[in-house]
Design a protein that fits this description.
Layout lengths: L1 H20 L7 H18 L9 H16 L9 H9 L7 E3 L3 H11 L10 E3 H4 L6 H11 L7 E4 L2 H10 L3 E5 L16 E3 L2 H10 L9
Parallel strand pairs: 1-2, 3-4, 4-5
Helix pairs in contact: 1-2, 2-3
């Protein structure tokens, strides 16, 4: 019995390490099912069934593939995001993004959201690649330096008061709080954003009006 529990614990630990390597969050409810599948598949390695079964690595791979296929249709940008990015891409402005997380996981999100064609190729900053995470202002400094611009020349748009607005304010960026209804809507930070908008349409109006960004006619 003790040996069985020890092997079950080893299988569970290996499953958690596997989920971490894949960029999955074992504490999120929507990913618990995948974790259970991984534990079950790894347990087969310790306790082979008396009848032919799918090899554990193949079972885990199938579970991971099913997970990613199922989340894809639900990962979509707001309707105003792509039109706004398309307009911004028609200007000389550098269009970048700062995101926290594992490189593969965050890059996959950007691809699935369909925003990568409208971003400047050298202005995608993922914390895992840089080694600095939000809300450390050094991450924002690094993004500005690598883009060849001063913080005072940058505008940062985010929806999280403490993870986005506070560090961007600290280094002197023009900050814009995106007030969409969501999990950060009731949160507040240490500082006040310079601007606040409800959506990307309002953001474009702000850019063309107050910052005199010239958008080509449609």
């Amino acid at each position: 019995m003790r040996a069985t529990r020890a092997l079950d614990g080893a299988a569970a630990l290996l499953a958690l390490l596997l989920l971490g390597a894949l960029g999955l969050d074992w504490w999120r409810p929507e990913e618990v099912f995948l974790g259970l599948l991984a534990v079950a598949a790894l347990r087969l390695a310790f306790y082979p069934l008396p009848f032919p079964a799918v090899a554990p690595p193949r079972a885990v791979a199938a579970a991971v593939a099913a997970y990613h296929d199922s989340k894809g249709p639900h990962l979509r940008p707001f309707p105003d995001v792509i039109p706004a990015l398309r307009k911004l891409a028609s200007t000389p402005l550098i269009r970048g993004i700062i995101t926290s997380g594992l490189s593969v996981k965050q890059a996959e999100k950007l691809v699935r959201l369909g925003v990568t064609p409208y971003l400047s190729a050298s202005a995608v900053f993922i914390s895992d690649q840089i080694g600095i995470s939000k809300p450390n202002p050094k991450l924002f400094h690094r993004a500005c330096a690598d883009s060849g611009v001063a913080p005072e020349e940058c505008m940062y748009v985010g929806d999280h008061p403490t993870q986005d607005i506070d560090p961007a304010n600290e280094i002197g960026m023009a900050t814009v709080l995106m007030r969409r209804a969501g999990r950060h809507a009731t949160q507040s930070g240490r500082s006040t954003p310079r601007h606040s908008v409800a959506d990307c349409t309002e953001l474009l109006t702000l850019l063309s009006g107050q910052y005199r960004v010239d958008f080509p006619p449609p």
